[in-house]
Amino acid sequence: MFVESLECFACGARQGADRCINLCSCGKPLAVRYDLAQVARAVTREEIRRRPAGTWRWRELLPLPPGEQPVTLGEGDTPLIHAQALGERLGLPKLFVKDEACNPTGSFKARGMSVAVTMARHFGQRKLVAPSAGNAGGALAAYAAAAGLEAFVFMPADVPVVNRLECELSGAHVTLIDGLIDDCGREVALRKASQGWFDVSTLKEPYRVEGKKIMGYELAEQFDWVLPDVIVYPTGGGTGLVGMAKAFDEMEALGWIGAKRPRFVAVQSSGCAPIVRAFEAGREFADRWGKGGTVAAGLRVPQAIADFIILRELRRSGGCAVMIEDEELLAAMRTLASATGVCACPEGGACLAATRKLQTGGWIKPEECVVLFNTGSGMKYIEAAQSCLNCPLLPEAAPLL
Fold first, then answer.
1. What is the spatial distance between Cα 239 and Cα 205, in angstroms, rounded to a whole number?
2. Which fold has domain 80-106+209-400?
3. What is the C-alpha separation between 50 and 124, in angstroms, rounded?
4. Cα torsion for 365, 367, 372, 378, to the nearest 10°?
């Protein structure tokens, strides 16, 4: 294992990685730091490419000690689809979709939970808990079942029914809360010590982000180690954006890529857009959004613990933050599916709508390589899919159809 330490994203304090831990003493997220010089001597990117597919072929850049088996269901190595027909209609011939719906449990959450559950089991934890707006709960339930651990999931009472059923079918203990995901998080915080639960909430432990960062490694490999110009990413808790930025920094230190970075675009719904509001105001942190409401369950995060990291990476990359109306994302959800064959989730639809908005405004240039993320399967959003089919199309979205 090449892990050197855990380092706070905020204050920079370092500590050992030899025990199970949640946050830094300052209350902010921790990042896993590696001896990348040793990694570079131990493995090449060509060797990793020859290994069997999946997240754990990047093992030297993941935290599990040698000789231990990860908890895996085959996550990772999702397809990168060249959306040629759709790109031509948008005036973006180099438009790609990274389809995370192909992961186990039907979303990108499988990546993070594979690593988080693996490390929790490694450190002797038996009961894992997390708040979830939907897909994270299903992933926790599935990976805990595979690891022989108990899972406890707190969800908003109006969570999409498929997400709740997925958790229950995998044996998780589900508690429904009247409120949003941060209300669920408060309940977890109140109960976890007395119940002996280990909290694997988004960025409240160091390892989910390590699973998500592999999306960045895959993108680099799929583009033959030349990164795209723009990454359009649906941002609730923001683990994937934070993880990919970390991956790009690691790859540059390894000598696998150069200094060029994609411009990150954080996409949120107008019904819950704390990152967009903070970005536009030039703030370092994002205020809580109040009562967030959107059909895109994964974007209904009124306050993210990683807000300052997301905002920092947007600015560092020369990126931006965009909010989309629910009617727009529903129309684009249908367009993305019908034009590419990708079974788009509402968050994927939001990314397409944001891409079009930025291209129309000239922020994205016709010659640029653009990757938008479809973070989950539309089949897990039955209520949104029904709304999508019945959605009156906004005039400005008409050229997409």
1. 11
2. Rossmann fold (3.40.50)
3. 33
4. 100
Distance of CA 68 to the CA centre of its chain: 26
Q: Hey, what are 315's tokens? A: 């600015």
Task: List the structure tokens of 198.
Answer: 């280990």
Read off the pLDDT of residues 224-237 as tens digits, 9 standing for 90 and up: 999 999 999 999 99
Query: For 123-176, how does the pLDDT look when each residue is reduced to its tens digit (9 = 90+)?
Result: 999 999 999 988 999 999 999 999 999 999 999 998 888 999 999 999 999 999
SS3 string, the chain, reads CCEEEEEECCCCCEECCCCCCCCCCCCCCEEEEECHHHHHHHCCHHHHHHCCCCHHHHHHHCCCCCCCCCCCCCCCCCCEEECHHHHHHHCCCCEEEEEHHHCHHHECHHHHHHHHHHHHHHCCCCEEEEECCCHHHHHHHHHHHHHCCEEEEEEECCCCHHHHHHHHHCCCEEEEECCCHHHHHHHHHHHHHHHCCEECCCCCCCCHHHHHHHHHHHHHHHCCCCCCCEEEEECCCCHHHHHHHHHHHHHHHHCCCCCCCCEEEEEEECCECHHHHHHHHCCCCCCCCCCCCCCCHHHCCCCCCCHHHHHHHHHHCCCEEEEECHHHHHHHHHHHHHHHCCCCCHHHHHHHHHHHHHHHCCCCCCCCCEEEEECECHHHCHHHHHHHHHCCCCHHHHHHC
* Tokens read off for 28: 């902010």
User: Can you give the pTM of this predicted structure?
Assistant: 0.94
- Helices 307-316 and 274-281, packing angle to 10 deg: 50
